[in-house]
């Protein structure tokens, strides 16, 4: 890592020496594996600073537009971020201690972030929209129970299929695909069985009516038919 960090210093030193030698506007390129790693690191850091805020902003706006709730938007985004970092940490432990991986490729965290955050919010919207619909005629606890049970078969099936697909990548001899597959498989399983099943419904019930703020749920009045 120290060698990579010295690439700018090497470039600046070479440019300074060429300038002192009388070369006008010298252009210096540093080659080799270390220089390539430095360029990759620089590009990844730049893309991360741009892509992550853009993705989070777009998802937050979509959630706010669809659910009409600032509170729900905040905790739904927070849950998928928690799921992403958990998958990244668990994936690193598996890759490092069970697959003898020394380091994760620089682009993998960014790729996994875009995929897992988008997928996690897709699952969340599918389930929360069911809770929102049920809340019009049931109390919040019953609506949450109904929302989880209604969407469980679809989300569980989709999550298992997708996680299995990514897990297959771990059998390939390409390290980038192995790392991406392991991390994404873990993230999908976390979203499917932890975030969607327990975390989001629990937070919704604990927050109560505040979960819908500032939106309001219209109560559906059921009238008995006359015989």
Structure notes:
This protein is mainly α. The chain has a single domain (51-212), classed as Multidrug efflux transporter AcrB transmembrane domain (Multidrug efflux transporter AcrB transmembrane fold, Up-down Bundle). Helix content is 75%, strand content 0%. The chain contains seven helices and no strands. Helix 4 (70-98) packs across helix 5 (108-134) and helix 4 packs antiparallel against helix 7. The protein is elongated. The relative contact order is 0.12. Mean pLDDT is 85; it is low at 221-227.
Instruction: Please indicate the percent range of residues in DSSP E strands (runs of 2 or more).
Output: under 5%
**CATH homologous superfamily?**
Multidrug efflux transporter AcrB transmembrane domain
Quickly give the structural class. mainly alpha
Radius of gyration of CA atoms, rounded to a whole number:
24 Å
* Biggest sheet statistics: none
Principal-axes geometry comes out as: elongated
Distance between the termini: 81 Å
**H/E order of the elements?**
HHHHHHH
- Can you name the CATH architecture? Up-down Bundle
Transmembrane segments: 50-67, 74-98, 110-132, 153-174, 180-208
Subcellular location: Cell membrane
Pfam families: MMPL
Keywords: Cell membrane, Membrane, Transmembrane, Transmembrane helix
What keywords describe this structure?
mainly alpha; 227 residues; Multidrug efflux transporter AcrB transmembrane fold; disordered C terminus
Outline the fold blueprint.
Layout (H helix, E strand, L loop, with lengths): L1 H4 L1 H14 L12 H35 L2 H29 L9 H27 L5 H29 L6 H33 L20
Keywords: Cell membrane, Membrane, Transmembrane, Transmembrane helix
Family: Belongs to the resistance-nodulation-cell division (RND) (TC 2.A.6) family. MmpL subfamily.
Main location: membrane
